[in-house]
From TrEMBL:
InterPro entries associated with the record: DNA_glycosylase (IPR011257), HhH-GPD_base_excis (IPR017658)
Name this polypeptide is given: Fe-S cluster assembly protein HesB
Source superkingdom: Bacteria
GO biological process: DNA repair
GO molecular function annotation: catalytic activity
Length: 188
């Protein structure tokens, strides 16, 4: 699978082959540019010296993990808070999915079930869950019955509304323009 969210070949390669990296990137996608959020998993993996593993992240000393994310350049604008969220997500995956991020969406009956599973993840509210569901459907081939409906407006075809619609530098700019327009409209 070819992912182009970080706009960096090494970071995007990790996102394309690691469901955990993709999930962590989505978790980090708030209050920072989306490329930085989705490059975060690669930075964490580089600092760990190996691919991401939910069990390792969950069991990492919280202060040391926060320091890992805070080292320059910081993985996120709020490295300590995001380190805690990444560890909470990893812990949840260990407890509910044997540490496998892919099991969150594997073998779901329908889009509504997938949305419920995503909403149960620490750090995933409705909007983040729907965007990630749309990303899975549009770019990862995870398309249970009713996935577009469960993803809400983010599942629509031919829109440039969220990370689910970013496939290259041009579509990233279209998503940014859509978000700026929505902010302008909200101010009126």
């Amino acid at each position: 699978m070819r992912i182009r969210l970080a706009q960096d070949s090494e970071a995007d390669e990790l996102l394309g082959r690691s469901p955990l990296a993709l999930l962590i990137g989505m978790l980090l996608d708030q209050q920072v540019p989306l490329e930085r959020a989705f490059a975060g998993p690669r930075t964490i993996a580089d600092r760990l010296g190996r691919d991401l593993d939910a069990r390792e992240i969950a069991s990492y000393d919280p202060d040391q993990f926060a320091a890992l994310l805070a080292a320059a350049p910081a993985v996120h604008r709020y490295p300590k808070a995001m380190a805690a969220r990444v560890q909470a997500l990893a812990t949840y995956l260990v407890e509910h999915y044997d540490g496998s991020a892919e099991k969150v969406w594997k073998d779901v009956r329908d889009g509504a079930e997938l949305l419920r599973r995503l909403l149960a993840l620490p750090g995933f509210g409705r909007q983040k869950a729907q965007i990630f569901l749309a990303l899975l459907g549009k770019q990862c081939g995870v398309r249970p019955d009713g996935w577009r409906e469960a993803a809400g407006p983010y599942g629509e075809e031919g829109v440039h509304r969220s990370v689910a619609d970013v496939v290259d530098a041009e579509s990233l700019q279209l998503v940014r323009a859509t978000k700026q327009e929505a902010k302008r409209a909200a101010k009126k």
